[in-house]
Amino acid sequence: MTLRCRTHGPFPWLCALLIAAPVAAQAQDWPQWRGPSRDGAVPAFEAPEAWPESLTLRWRVDVGEGYAGPVLVGERVFAFTREGGDEVMRALDADTGAELWRAAYPAPFSFLPAAEPHGPGPKATPTHAGGRLYTLGLGGVVTAFDAETGDTVWRVPEPEIAPWYGTAASPLVDGGMVVVHVGGHDQGALTAFDSETGEVRWAWDGDGPSYASPRLVEVDGVRQIVTLTQGKVVGVQAATGALLWERAFSTNFTQNIIDPIVVDGGTVVISGFQEPTQAFRLARAGDGWTIEDAWASAETSQYMTNGVLLGDGRLFGMTSRNSGQYFLLDLAAGETLWTSAPRQAENAAILRAGDTLLVLEDDGELVVGRVSDGGFDEAARYVVAGSATWAQPAVAGNRVFVKDVTTLSLWTID
């Protein structure tokens, strides 16, 4: 089956960044949130000389509700979803879509009415490491599954105080630990569970959780986990969870959502709903750290879409202003180089492969192209889903795995 693409309309594109990859992966694996390096970079992709008129639909299967993105390891693709009152992890054959195993556990959860339009989840993408899959359910259940059989290795039940709107932060695996932020709206702990046993190795309880996923970085020789919490951006020691530094940051009407970015060895870039994209610089000062504000860009305020970094120090992303505008931002000075026409999308999953961008907009359209100094250079646009696409896709070689509201599909670029 094929679908025709549209190749008209103004649009954008760019290249990318480097941040330590906490999960070892084969060249074409997509083992976690936003790819091997958790930054939207596609390691195994070569753009065609000419984009085809259509993509080829290889298979589509019903897998259940949720915004958790698919995970690809070897010739298996994994989907974490909801079916009725259960949260379900399943393994599918990547070539055919045939189900290899299915594992489910009861996970009833009620949230505030404001979250109902986005469904009952789950929304946190699983992480594959060491032959296991680690998940964070909508209500805060943390589970380790055997990736070969689907057996439950260990499970930590949901916290006594549930998050108001559910969870969305994807687990980070590092040093034999699974790091997730568990707890309720304004309390809880950034917690490192032992990847083998599920026992708590360390916990930092200085603030409640956010929707942003933690990042592993090194600043001034110190390996640390940088993440947004309910009302802060913090850095903790990767090995012990000891707080290194913190800075207040919160958004209007919603939790922090955008993942932090660390560039130039210590410049932290953050953003949030109706808050400017902004940067501050970290530096060691004796036994402590200094934080110096660098710049703020109000016109590139970001809500739910994580951008990608260019190798030349520019950020391509989407602002929530004017019903969704793509932008290109110089990170050295905080200068907006351009913004696109308004009303592009409510949300988009942005990936980059070399100087090619693949952007899955929330209306089920995949846009490909490149960025230029003047704006977006759109090469092709393909319809790849029949319902909303809020989950991050997985890309490997010429394959694109797309999760919409209830189905998972494989498209190939032939």
Explain this structure to me?
With 414 residues, this protein is mainly beta. It has a single domain, classed as 7 Propeller (Methylamine Dehydrogenase, Chain H), CATH 2.130.10.10. 0% of the residues lie in helices and 47% in strands. It contains no helices and 33 strands. The N terminus is likely disordered.
What are its keywords?
0% helix, four-stranded antiparallel beta sheet, mainly beta, 47% strand, 414 residues, five-stranded antiparallel beta sheet, globular, disordered N terminus, Methylamine Dehydrogenase, Chain H
Quick overview of this protein structure:
This protein has no helices and 33 strands. With 414 residues, the chain is mainly beta.
Q: What structural category characterises the helix and strand content?
A: mainly beta
- Domain count, please report it: 1
Question: What percentage of residues falls in helices of 4 or more residues?
Answer: under 10%
- Named CATH topology: Methylamine Dehydrogenase, Chain H
Q: What is the strand content?
A: over 45%
Q: What's the main sheet like?
A: 5 strands, antiparallel
